[in-house]
Each structure stands twice: as structure tokens, then as C-alpha cells.
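assembly run, all chains below
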Amino acid sequence: MAPGTLSTFLKRGAIWGFIVLELVFFSVAGEFLSLSDKAFMDLDNMLLLFKQSAPIGIIAIGMTIIMINGNIDLSVGATFALSAIVLLDSMTWPMFGGLGDGVIPLAWGLALMTGVVLGALNGLIVWKTGVDAFIVTLGSMLGYRGLVFMYNGEQPTSHLNWTLVDLAESQFMGLHTPTWFLIAVTAVIWFVMNKTVHGRNAYAIGDNRTAAINAGIRVGPHFVINFMIIGFLASLSAVVFYSESGSVNPNDGELYELWVITAVVLGGTKLTGGAGSVLSTLGGVLAIQLLRKGLGHIGADTETVNLVIGLILIAVLFLDRQLNLKGREALKT
Amino acid sequence: MTDQTPALRLEGIVKTFPGVRALDNVSFSVLPGEVHALMGENGAGKSTLMKVLGGIYQPDEGQIVVSEQPTVMTSPLQAKSKGIVFIHQELSLAEELTVAENIYLGELPKKAFGLVDWQKLYAQTNVILEKLKVGFDAKTRVGDLSIANQQMVEIARALTVEAKAVIFDEPTASLTDAEKVVLFDVISDLQAHGVGIIYISHRMEEIFKITDRISVLRDGQYRGTLKTAETNEDEVTQLMIGRKLDLSRNETHHDLGAVALEVRDLSCGKLFRNISFEVRKGEVVGFYGLVGAGRTEIAETLFGLREPTGGDILLNGEKVHVSSPADAIEKGISLVPEDRKGQGLVLGMNCRDNMTLPQVSDLKAGPFVAEGAEIAIFDQYRDRLDIRTPGWKQLVGNLSGGNQQKIVIGKWLSMHPDVLIVDEPTRGIDVGSKSEIHNLIRELASQGYAVIVISSEMPEVLRVSDRIVAMYSGEIIRTFTSQEVTEDNLIQAISGINPEKAA
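ok done. output:
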């Protein structure tokens, strides 16, 4: 076998193997522990799982390209909340009064634009100041959340548009609207990362920034594009979620950044950049959602769920480290 | 002196790496109170020997004897406890800590409950600092000191143990003349206290000023020890370069074209000054000098990685300003960097993607990368440069050094540059691939490329260059044609002793 093949195979397949493991475990354990009679791997239950994975999943796909590029974005939760407010509030603005349901595309457009602008701002600051993305987005996380509270104080912002709710709750070929968005986003970003110049350069910059610069790649614009993409996806996630729920609290989306990063890391994307895949991130998102649902299914409470996910994350990274060490040994011989 | 017990003796040290006999039966000894120079060209085995001495490498054969006690070295720290102390060229100090904390790092005196005994720490430190007659005290933050004074801190560190032998590795590389005087005072003081000193340097002037004996390594072999008082620079040079090396010159000559690159009075702060040279189409100009002579920095300036503080760069007769690597590439200047893995390649990417990295944005089919065109480019240069890889999908990190270097060279050739700069073309590459790369460089010149080769290996510059520029601490000392260059005049020029220094 060629050097490193085994570890590469294990790493690529690991997250899907883990998902299978979860399914088997919860199905069997559910037989004995679950209070409900329904099987864990019930079709409706699985469809719901996909739908519930969408809000975090859509952002996690964006975080994958940010992290492959060697950056990080902590402001996604705040961007998510601010976009949600723009979405719901703009539908009540008097100037759109006469449009009827024609307000929907406008509200969506405004919400998505919010995310793109906030993302571009992050990217420009990282590019022009040279300050680490961790620090920049830590600042913008606080700042953007501040804007959320300035908008409506502690009050929730609400507006239900029934056409929108129907759209969000509809199913096509069995899958819910949010699930379709998650699939579409994964597919598009997969193409961007694997088939376009931007994706190629993003990998190169994340793996070896010096070599990329020496090859004449201008890293700044790539940073900005990636931050705009994740901003767009954070607001798309909000658009998908709040079209259905119709009410946003100023605290919504808090800690989303951490769940998103957890999913991305679980999917095998390197924190240092240069390696990762959106498909594996999708696996990471599903694995976390399965764990939550599964633990709920067998009667564990929320606190236990968080504890277990935390332990699994650390175990996975430890395993990854061991595999990497093995891979390097294999290269030496 | 001969009846003394050596402070440190090396007996028949052998160290092999896959394919290389880095040290071949090296023996020499240092007497107490002696300054013993260790000389040799780059790659002669000096640093390997020091790593063996410091316990970083274990010798395959032979032994280290400290004060007549055979000793196995396992780490620099353990070597220090045996009285063998290293003063490295690169300082390893914690800048945010005080002088005292740095000197006793890892061995801070303690009081009850593990608290640091600051009074004792400062008192002990000041005793040492007084011995060294330095102008700063124990509580100074190391980051606030000059490089020379930081070096004094390193030396002070050495004095916390009963040192039997102190090894100085190119200690004067970053010192001013005044600072050197202080350093030499310290060395003679150590000498007076009976410490044996190994002094590694390329600078003949210093060697003849302060050392008692000179031992020479060449190609990993011990070549003999000379008494400094009874020898001269020529004899040492002879011993260092020997006659065994393949010092064949570049024999292929072809007609040169127009001047592709001209540099006039280029300066960049303290790094290099008033650099003027030209490279014609079809010509290879070799830059030879010691590490730190400013050669790489010139290359980086030409490639837009550094902003010059003065002078002009002319490409094909036109004055240009190179603001970034992207700009340099656009103008037709390419750089194969010194650190292949760190600066030249994206190791986690495959061969094809690395090869097309600078031009991938031009290879588009609609919104996507035209992978077919990429593979065509890769195939073309794989065949032309004879790159041995199972296929383009192979990760570059899995290739041998020689093939990696060919990928980097192919990357630039596919961009059709006017000027190709190659910094240390064969560093870390095995002997067979070396000559392949050398032939390739000659071939490129014959195809009309203007090539600059920077190298620290004399056989390499002699082999590939039409002309050789000798540099010493940021200045061009002399430019040789391949007819007039000899090993002697070249090694003298780069050591800063050149009677014929051109004005």
C-alpha cells in the first residue's frame, strides 16, 4: 500500500463510520431504554434530523472553507441573528406595504445582503490590518451582537408570513425545504473548493501561505471572498430557519460558532488550514445531530449531551493526531 | 602544552545518514586553555560534529572523552552538565524575561513552596555579569539588549556550570567590530581560567587573531590540525578545499544575448549595499558567499519580497519597480527559493496543482479550472525535466528532494520567465540528482534564459556559472569570469580577505 493511504482512508471514512456506529448504538440501546415505541431509525425521525441539521450545517459548510483557508470566523452566530432581524423586520416596513407576498424576495435579499456585508467587513479587516482572524472576528462577534441588541433591545422581533411558513415547511421528494438548502449549499461549495481557481488557491494559502505568495497568489482577496461566502451562508441559514419560526430573540445564534467549529473539526478539517472537505463537514454536522437526538431518544438530558459531545470531540482529535503520526512514520520508511 | 590532559577529545567519530557518510573517522582534541578553530566548507561536517557532541545525534562509531572520561551525550542539557557548553549562532533566549531568568532558565533557585528565590538569583547573576564586565544588570529585560549583549547572556549561561569546553559557532556573524573586541576579551578570559574553546568560523582574520590551533574537516573527514602560529591562510585554504572535490568548471559556452537584467547600486538597509551586476540572456551568473552575505536577500528584493532602500532594477533595459511576487512574475522574474518545502511547495497538494499554481487563474474553462490543460502542462514538464513520479496525483510531499526541486523549476519554466533565480538549487538533494539539476541549469541557459544561481557550495557555482559574483557581508567583493576564478581567490574573496578588491 502506498504510504499514508491507510491513514488517509481511515480519516476520510472515519466520520461516516462513526455515524453508522451511532445509528447502530442508538437503535439497539433504544430498544431497551427508550420510552417511546418508535424505532430510532424511523423515516420521519431521520427526515426531521436532516431538517434540524440545516441551520448549523449551512454555516458549517462556510466555516470549512474559512478554516481550509487558514482562518476562523467567530462572528457567525451574531451575523445569523442580525440577518434574522433584518428578514423579519423588513417585511413590516411601511415602504414595502403594498407589495403583499412580493415582500418575501425583497426581505430575503436584504437579509442575505446583511450577511455578505458583515462578512466582507471581517475579510477586509483581516486583509488590510493583518490582524489574526481569530481576534478580528472575536471583536466583530461582540460588535455584531451589539447591533442585534441595539435594534430592538431585549425584545424579540417577530413577524409571521404564512406564505413563507408554508414554503419553509413544505416537502419535496420527502425532504424538507431546509434540507434541500443544505444539500444545495454543500454541492455548490464542493464545486467551488474542488473545481474553481478560488478553491484551489484557498487550499494552497491554507497549506503554505509563503509558497502561495511566492507563486504570485494575492491572499487578501481570497480571504475577503471566503468571509463574504460565510457571511452569506450565515444569513442564508437565518433565512431558512426564521422563515418558519417567525420570531427572533436577541440571544439567538449564541454559541453557534462553537457548534459549527465542532462539526467542522469532527469532519476532519485541519485547524491549521490546508486540508478539509465540505462532505466530511456534512458528516460532522449529521454526527452531532444524531448524537443529540440519539441521547434524547434513550432518555439523557441536555447537559449529558453536551458532556458527551465534548468528550467525543477531544477523543476524535486525539485519534487524528495518532493517525497523523502514523502517516508521518510511513513516509519516513 | 602537549603533556596536558585534553579537556575534550573526540576519537574516531563516524556518523552516517542514508547515502551519506557525514562524519568519517573524525578525531581531534581540545586542551584546557586552548582556542581551537574548527574549519571546513559548508557541508564539511562541522555542524554534524557539533550535533554529535551535543547529543542530538548518536555517533555510529567512536567516542567522546571529557577529561579522560568516556562520555555518552544524550542531549545538550546533559552535555552542559558534563561541562560542554554551546554558544550558538542563533540565540535561544526568552526576550520577555530578565537576564537573570534567562541565565538560570530551568534551574531557578527556589525557596520553600517552590517560590523563586529572587534575591539569590540576582546575586548569583550579578557575580557572573561582573566577571564578564558587561554594562547591564541582572534585572534587564533581554529583549532590550543589543544582539552582542544577548550573546553575552548566552555566554553567561555557559558560566553557570564548571565549563570544561565551550563551543562558539560563528559567534561574530552579527557583531560589530567593537562588539567583537569584547567577545574576544571574554574568550581570552575563559582561556585564562583553563577552559578549552572550540571556535567555529569561516573568517580567516579572526581565526588567525585568536586561535592556537586549527583543525580542518573536509567532506566529513578529519584533514589535520595546524598550529596557527606556524601556518598561513593559503595552507588552511588548501586543506579545506583539497584536491579531491570535483571542481570542474562549466565548459559549455554559447553566444550570449542582450542584457536581460541589470542591477545598479541596489541597497537594502544593512542587508546589502551598492550591488551592481548584469545578467545576459543565455548566461548563468553564480552568487557565492558565506551564509548571511546577503545573497538571498538580493534575490528576495528582485522578486518583490523586500523593498530596496536605493538603486535601480532594469529589465530588458527598462527601469522597473517590483512591488510583490505577483508583480515579479508578471514582469518575468521567477524565484526558486532556498527553502523548497517552506517557501516553494504546497506539500499537501499533488504534483500537477503545485506545477500550475502560479498560472491556474489563467487556465479556466468557464467558472472551473481547466484540468485537462493543467495535466497537459504537467506532462510536458514531467517529460522535459524527467520528473519521476507515479503520476500527477502524487502528493508533492511524497517525492524525493530532487524531484520536488524539479517540480518547482518546472512551475516557473511553464511561466516562460525572462530571469530565473535559483537559490541553493541542490540543498538536501542526493548526489545523482545534483548533477541532473546542474545539467538542467546549463541547458536552460543554452535555451536563452538568464539565470542567477545562489549557492554556498563551491563546486556547484564553479560547475554551472559563466561568471561568479563573490559576496562578503552585504557587498560584492569581486566578479570573476569562469576563466579567471580559482578556488583560492574565490574562497579568499568570500572570507573578506581580498588584496585585489575592486574599487
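Residues 302-332 of chain A form the longest helix (31 residues).

Chain A has one domain: 8-326.

not gonna interpret more than that til we talk
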